[in-house]
Design a protein that fits this description.
By secondary structure, the protein is of the alpha+beta class. The protein contains 16 helices and 16 strands. Bound molecules: adenosine monophosphate.
């Protein structure tokens, strides 16, 4: 029969990769918790309007990348392409702002974008998403970025670049927008078709265009940082001073506008040279009007989203994690030995000791080979002779040393060395 394969761009995450993911998630949980964040779990399916309004009509995501369908002739629903809009929807729906002036939330899960699949880019991918809703002080931006950098360093990641920019606010952004429109109109003929259209719809998107000739035009473009109002300038300076105080290195990149419309003031990305074309492992920024745009009160926010696939690809084995392996493998041969081993194996498991055995009746030698392949720390050899003599051979697989242990003391001995 014909085999059914996974959908294009949808990837299985197999062991031991899943062990690495677990390590990342546990580290995230521990670090975020010490910075006062709580987990929120939200659905993967939302009403399409949430993303139309939240992300912006003229972004690539909303224009061409969403998995949208009509649910049995009723609502238009969309598989979430990012988490921020959903987090805010939940925040408003449950009036969390009424309970606490500051909400620090994180969530980890799959996102869906119908992009062209390639290395580092999938149609279902995963994000660690972190949001702070409530305060707009630059200390908040600094605390979020400090936590992020601390998290990445806890994972042992090196050679990362933090790129930082400020996109201004409702006061100063319109003047910049006007300036950039004027500038782009002057070079309209040198832009790709998409960017010519963007002048009218979303001129900031031209900064993101990967077409070479557009890049050449943008290199000459006016810079947002030159247009910042006094408040935005001070906010940005304070953030930088806080990062300097913790010796966090960053690179100011006034051309980084990010792919989503909702950002105001602080935006940032972390990039690495090791990922090739898809060099950003995370992106984030402040969104001071998004909550209001989604129907809530005027509450500012800031957040970031890390791509789990890209993050995981940067973490080698032995960097704080290793593939899960048995603590003990019991190689048993003969009915009586297997009987005994079966009981011992499951008793040890219930005591939290990862124990494996083989019911296949294969030779002790081939069972030991399997113990080795599974990278078991210890092995017990139990054949007919051992049963006769009421003892077993306990082998330390790392040092290749072994000792005889009486069957009556075996369980206790194993528990002692495994702990
Ligand atoms: P964004 O939500 O577009 O700001 O993306 C934040 C991060 O999510 C990026 O830096 C990537 O690490 C990751 N990401 C975004 N899109 C994809 C994708 N299609 N496949 C894998 N990772 C992605």
């Amino acid at each position: 029969m014909e085999m059914i394969s996974a959908v294009r761009g949808f990837k299985d995450i197999l062991p031991p990769e899943t062990d690495k993911w677990r390590h990342i998630e546990n580290t995230a949980q521990a670090v975020f918790s010490s910075f006062g964040f709580n987990e929120i779990r939200i659905p993967v399916l939302e009403k399409t309007d949430l993303f139309r309004r939240g992300i912006g009509e003229s972004t690539d995501i909303v224009e061409k990348e969403m998995y949208t369908f009509t649910d049995r002739g009723e609502d238009s629903l969309t598989l979430r392409p990012e988490a921020t809009a959903s987090v805010i929807r939940a925040y408003l729906e449950h009036a969390l702002h009424g309970v606490e002036p500051v909400s620090k939330l994180y969530t980890i899960g799959p996102m869906f974008r119908r992009e062209r699949p390639q290395k580092g880019r999938y149609r279902q991918f995963h994000q660690i998403d972190v949001e702070i809703l409530g305060p707009d002080a630059p200390y908040t931006d600094a605390e979020l970025i400090l936590m992020l950098i601390h998290f990445l360093s806890r994972l042992g990641l090196k050679n990362l670049t933090l790129e930082l920019n400020s996109l201004g606010c409702a006061e100063c952004r319109p003047a910049f927008r006007e300036g950039i429109v004027q500038f782009l109109k002057g070079s309209e003929g040198e832009l790709c078709g998409d960017c010519q259209r963007r002048i009218g719809t979303n001129p900031l998107r031209v900064f993101d265009c990967k077409v070479e000739k557009c890049g050449a035009v943008i290199a000459q473009a006016p810079l947002l940082t030159d247009y910042l109002c006094t408040d935005c300038r001070e906010h940005f300076a304070k953030l930088q001073a806080c990062l300097d105080r913790f010796a966090v290195p960053y690179r100011l990149n006034p051309k980084m506008v990010r792919g989503l419309d909702y950002y105001t003031r602080t935006t940032f990305e972390v990039t690495t040279e090791f990922l090739g074309a898809q060099n950003a492992i995370l992106g984030g920024g402040r969104y001071d009007h998004l909550v209001r745009d989604l129907g809530g009160p005027d509450i500012p926010g800031i957040g970031f989203a890390i791509g789990l696939e890209r993050l995981a690809s940067l973490i080698p084995e032995q960097e704080g994690w290793s593939p899960a392996a048995p603590q003990l493998f019991i190689a048993a041969l003969g009915d009586r030995a297997v009987e005994k081993a079966f009981s011992l194996c499951n008793r040890l498991r219930m005591k939290g000791i990862r124990t494996e055995m083989d019911y296949g009746g294969r030779s002790l030698k081939s069972q030991m080979k399997r113990a080795d392949r599974l990278n078991s720390a210890y092995a017990v050899l139990l054949g007919e002779r051992e049963i006769e003599e009421n003892r077993a051979l306990l082998r330390n697989m790392r040092t290749s040393t072994q000792e005889q242990v009486g069957l009556d003391e075996l369980e206790e001995t194993i528990i002692k060395i495994a702990r």
